[in-house]
């Protein structure tokens, strides 16, 4: 307890002399995190499907975000910053808690992706067998959501139990959470990279989101490292890992996008303006074309990727 009291005194002194450059950077990162996820939320809603997004990417990303958020909440330095809010000014308190707010916003935004993934999950007929992509079922999506919920409740329960009964172990628990977040984040993009590679297009995955987040991950890691120091490696290390892997996924997505644009341009120069989707057979009365990533889009009919929510909308629209 005495060591924690010394830590509080040290943190309070730092909060009373804030670096305005670091403060401005922290606010910029906070807004950037929020803005970076909006294209992904919009893309899933606009396409009406979460096709192309791996359920394992969602599972690993959500559990990694939960561990990362819990990590910074129970970290001794963060708890000391919260305790300092009793003695420092409101402005100094808000400035000191921006690091926690950043991780919290990131976790919230990814949780929204989980909800949209579940709501707009394709529940139509099976994909053509020659797509080369593994077909995931509605049961898989629901299982992912349940695992994320149980994992979150378990992390909350353990954190609260240690805070009440064994507060001296919270530093160790924070490092465990940080390691878990780093490991989960390290493999988070692997199933998505494989899914995108198998499909040959990014589907409902947002390239603008990755364009913002890839360099932002390194800036964010630097900001957290400056705030928490070397001892906070378990918090900022995860963002270095995710930045590297997301960069790989971004590069793949850009390559597929460039190929899709060249294919569309070549198709528009041909005598026939129709676009043929290899291996895709539209339903009767439907018109097959490709979206901006080369994925099938169907007008006046249901595609094999149409989620149940859109399916009911289409049926009501077709009723005379």
TrEMBL record:
Q: Which UniProt keywords apply?
A: Membrane, Transmembrane, Transmembrane helix
Q: Where are the transmembrane segments?
A: 20-38, 58-77, 97-121, 142-164, 170-190, 202-224, 236-256
Q: Tell me where in or outside the cell this protein is found.
A: Membrane
Region Disordered: which residues? 285-320
Q: Which GO terms describe its cellular component?
A: membrane
Membrane topology label: Multi-pass membrane protein
Q: Which InterPro entries match?
A: LAAT-1, PQ-loop_rpt
Q: What is its main location?
A: membrane
Q: Where is the composition biased (Polar residues)?
A: 303-320
**What is the name attached to this protein's record?**
PQ loop repeat protein
């Amino acid at each position: 307890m005495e060591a924690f009291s010394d830590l509080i005194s040290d943190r309070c002194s730092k909060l009373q002399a804030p670096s305005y450059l670091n403060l401005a950077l922290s606010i910029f990162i906070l807004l950037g995190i929020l803005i970076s996820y909006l294209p992904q939320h919009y893309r899933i809603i606009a396409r009406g499907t979460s096709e192309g997004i791996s359920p394992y990417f969602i599972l690993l990303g959500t559990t990694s975000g939960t561990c990362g958020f819990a990590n910074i909440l129970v970290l001794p330095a963060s708890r000391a910053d919260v305790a300092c809010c009793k003695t420092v000014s409101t402005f100094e308190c808000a400035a000191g808690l921006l690091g926690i707010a950043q991780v919290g916003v990131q976790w919230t935004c990814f949780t929204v992706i989980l909800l949209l993934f579940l709501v707009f999950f394709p529940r139509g007929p099976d994909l053509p067998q020659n797509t080369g992509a593994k077909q995931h079922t509605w049961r898989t999506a629901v299982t992912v959501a349940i695992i994320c919920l149980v994992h979150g409740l378990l992390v909350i329960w353990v954190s609260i139990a240690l805070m009440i009964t064994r507060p001296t172990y919270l530093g160790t628990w924070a490092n465990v959470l940080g390691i878990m977040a780093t490991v989960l984040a390290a493999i988070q993009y692997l199933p998505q990279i494989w899914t995108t590679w198998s499909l040959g297009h990014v589907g409902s995955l947002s390239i603008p989101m990755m364009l913002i987040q890839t360099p932002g991950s390194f800036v964010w890691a630097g900001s957290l490292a400056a705030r928490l120091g070397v001892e906070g490696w378990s918090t900022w290390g995860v963002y270095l890992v995710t930045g590297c892997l997301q960069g790989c996924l971004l590069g793949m997505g850009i390559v597929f996008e460039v190929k899709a644009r060249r294919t569309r341009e070549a198709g528009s120069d041909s005598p026939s303006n129709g676009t043929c989707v290899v291996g895709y057979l539209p339903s009767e009365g439907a018109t097959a074309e490709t979206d901006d990533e080369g994925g099938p889009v169907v007008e006046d009919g249901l595609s094999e990727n149409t989620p149940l929510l859109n399916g009911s909308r289409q049926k009501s629209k077709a009723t005379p």
